[in-house]
Predict the structure.
Amino acid sequence: MADPSSYRPKPGQIPDSPGVYKFRDEHRRVIYVGKAKNLRQRVANYFQDLAGLHPRTRTMVTTAASVEWTVVSTEVEALQLEYSWIKEYDPRFNVKYRDDKSYPYLAVTLDEDFPRVQVMRGAKKKGVRYFGPYGHAWAIRETVDLMLRVFPVRTCSAGVFKNAARTGRPCLLGYIGKCTAPCVGRVTPEEHRELAEGFCDFMAGRTGTYIRRLEKDMMQAAEEMEYERAARLRDDTEALKRAMEKSAVVLADATDADLIAVAEDELEAALQIFHVRGGRVRGQRGWVTDKVEAVDTSGLVEHALQQLYGEERGDAVPKEVLVPALPEDAEAVSQWLAERRGSQVSLRIPQRGDKKDLMATVQRNAQQALGLHKTKRASDLTTRSRALEEIAEALGLDTAPLRIECYDVSHLQGDDVVASMVVFEDGLARKSEYRRFQIKGFEGQDDVRSMHEVIGRRFKRYLQDKERTGEWEEQPAAARAAGPATTGPVPAVAPAAEDGEPREDDGRRKRFAYPPQLVVVDGGQPQVAAAKRALDELGIDDIAVCGLAKRLEEIWLPDDDDPVVLPRSSEGLYLLQRVRDEAHRFAITYQRAKRAKRIRSSPLDDVAGLGETRKQALIKHFGSVKKLRQATIDEICEAPGIGRRTAESVAAALASTAPAAPAVNTATGEIMEEDDGGSS
């Protein structure tokens, strides 16, 4: 690992003008390319204290062995040079988008003497006009079949074309009128090219001209009593209209625009692009990328624009590009797009109307694409096995953690404190083993104390079950590690009894499942220490504990001053992140349900003249009914829309419904509270 100070440029050596910089490793390979308005300011950011850098940036600067830069005149030149270098060097630490599948395009080979219409995939070629991308190749073929009635352009391969020219006989399409048969000289190269260019114009959205021309010719042929020609023109018009109907109108005024949406998490991002031409969705594509550099939504959008339009010219760049967030150098990016199009390009965030609604649709597609990508990744057995092995190696475990339990605490400003326990077995969620906890012994924003209580309650119950049945001592170690058999469908969880404990269908108390090999807590060093302390107090020393801090995705171990940082591409980190996110989702869902129930049964419901809007305003202003109960009448009047008389009514209602003292167990003196709830 290199020390960044060993290759740090001298003070004043870096110019303060726009430019592009490259980091190289010890083998002189380019590992990162970036651009900046001010090179001196941007590059200096990489040489601050390593502890203050993002983990991915820290990995990059410690991998690099040198940095160099090139000065340019404008930010637009910097943007273009950055794109060229990324394409040339393919740096490992730059964001690289990859298609989530190979999309087919409708292509017209205008670089040939007799242009051909065909389906193409892969990299784009010069001299070829592309339309799409389409979701399926059959959709392209259906469109082409309808269009060939009006634009009978060549669709055959080079071999078929040469063979027809040699024999003097056209193919079947030439006989049925869906090809002008240039192979046998029925049309000149100029006439055939005119047809191909008309085909391109129609596909580019200039449809009204051709429809009106055909309708005019049809009426004229009918007036001249050329009914067969009029019928043929009528059929051609209907064919073009059917081709147009295959893409619904989504934007008025024949808008030409590309809409880009981003769905992301800490490790990956998915992009969806809708291509709208002539007000109709002409194509859709999606990209998925790993976040190999510290980048936000604006940076993802900028990288997407570079890859999307880096090789495009003219009409391939639309008049309008709608994005979820503007790039950092939005003005420079807009100017770069305008240069590639040859005219002004609007780069903006849609604020209202049809475009905002369509952007929401694109956003939903991006979220679904990211979810599908994660599902495919999680469902792969080899990937899951590798993830468990990486976790075991990183945490120093003897065996892979076949059962992982993750805990998270959720509350709203110290009220309605709850916790969740989710279970993953063999890398997959086991929802029948999920548990929810209510924490009623105290109130306040003390996540550490809450975590200690939850871990203690869960494993105290485990020890009670173990002592009661003795089954764990009788089972072999392999069976205990593997957990319960999972043959057949997961049984429905019986509702909790009045004591809060889950029950089997026959009324017997449901066991608190099996012990995990690894306990994961959502949080850093304090939460990990609390969980470990709870296990030590119970005498449990054979269960590993770790914490996953969300901000930097660091793994904390008990009694370690420094975290474990897994590689960004690690399948183990990806699995731990999914476990942590599921625990957070389960906890916050339970907490919101409790809060909604509390608000619905609030003592404020009995205040005359206090509607739902002002009730919510009071709760929002004070944070909870408990704090509202402690407020004076003057303090209540400070809430939006609350007058003196209403404040007096609120204070009186809360005073008459003061909370009852908690029930106390006369035998032990302990405060009685509800234990863990049922499963999800």
Summary: The CA atoms of residues 52 and 234 lie 71 Å apart. Confidence is low (pLDDT under 50) at residues 471-509, 660-680. The longest helix spans residues 571-600.
